[in-house]
Amino acid sequence: MMPSAPSLNGESQGSADHLLFVTGRLAEASLREVLAPISQQKNFTYDIAVPGIQVAALLHVSLLLRRLVIPPKTTRVVLPGWVQGDLNLLTAHFGLSFERGPKDLRDLPEYFGLGKRRTVALDRYSIAIIGEINHATRMPLQDVLAEASSLAASGADLIDIGCVPGESSPRVSEIVRAVRDLNLRVSIDSFDQNEVEQAVQNGAELILSCNHSNYDWVTRLGVEVVAIPDSPADTESLERLVQKLTADRVAFRIDPIIEPIGMGFTASLERYMRARRRFPDVAMMMGIGNVTELTEADSAGMNMLLAAICEELGIQSVLTTQVINWCRTAVAEFDIARRLAHHAVTQQVIPKHLISSLVMLRDPRWTVRTAEQLRALADRLTDSNFRIFAEAGELHLMNRHGHWTGTNPFDLFASAQAVTNSPSNQTHAEIDASHAFYLGYELARAELALQLHKQYEQDVPLRWGLLSNGGGHNRHPDNESAPS
Asked: What's the predicted TM-score (pTM) here?
């Protein structure tokens, strides 16, 4: 089978230097957008070649030798920085200069000497967050209002008043009215007619949920409803419900119900895809808390994947909670995830190197000093101030008196203390109580960074993504010569 011809998109004429940029199909539109101003400022013309592959990171010299077609006027070929293999093979084959550009096409301005990339504004999104207050009718009102304010501050667009199944609380009116007084939008999550009517009378704009069991009364209340199947796998009941709601001119969005992992999760995702194909123009919702709350794993990564699924399927709202401890920042996580997903899908770019807020356990970038570099640094020290490093699987503590390495902070401190406080030490730089506290604190942070493969920098707080509190430096006044 012959490989498909590359797509070539000439952009300008009249320059002696004509470059060919090679990329994958997904990045072609974004690359063209980035190159247009660069070519004008640097005075070159160009073509873009897509040698039959979706993602530029998968390109290899062997594939380019088979598939790449080069226009006759080309003077240089710029490849993505991810391309593997020996570029000399391409030069020998095509008789042209080949070079690796940056791994991220947004770094092309810097590559051509035009300054660093502009920060991407992640201010747009297409998915609304409904933040649920679980069992709100059992909570003191001041706690409900504090939770509602916190959810809104984290990014929730609606505050869902979660009721208790099997109960009929007279407090719904008070709760909804108080939350509305905070100028927040409200939904009600209940199948109890009394609770739902209280909520609607006091300003709730969305009812979770509607199926054939409550259709007759819930559709008379004049607000939007979330239509769900009579049971999660009963897709026919959802289709019948959509037909009835449409005929009765009731505002609605549909939720085919996402199932927890182990309870039919993948099959439920398939139901969302089928529902979108069946109802391409109907608003949809997904209750993502069924996944994040019921899976014992850090929720940030799950929220990113769920946001991507919703963005690609055109699901315009999600219902989420942050009850269990590993989900305590779920709304803030999804707020970032929905912006990343929207940018990635609409701009056809990979959601990478845009914002690091969802990288919390480890760090997005990690630079390593070699053992040789650390030894050379230790040999150059001429003062008693301690330097601390977490590199190459070990902790390093050093000053003019020694260089101590290991994995146990207690052992390192004991070794350093024995030398520093030794009678033979003529500098009188003994480790006093406050300095010992400082060293213990820093060594503990260094050990944590070592375990998590995080970047450790002495006197600088560890980075925790959106959980970072912006704390200041921890420098001890007697240890002013920490490494730069």
From this structure: 0.76
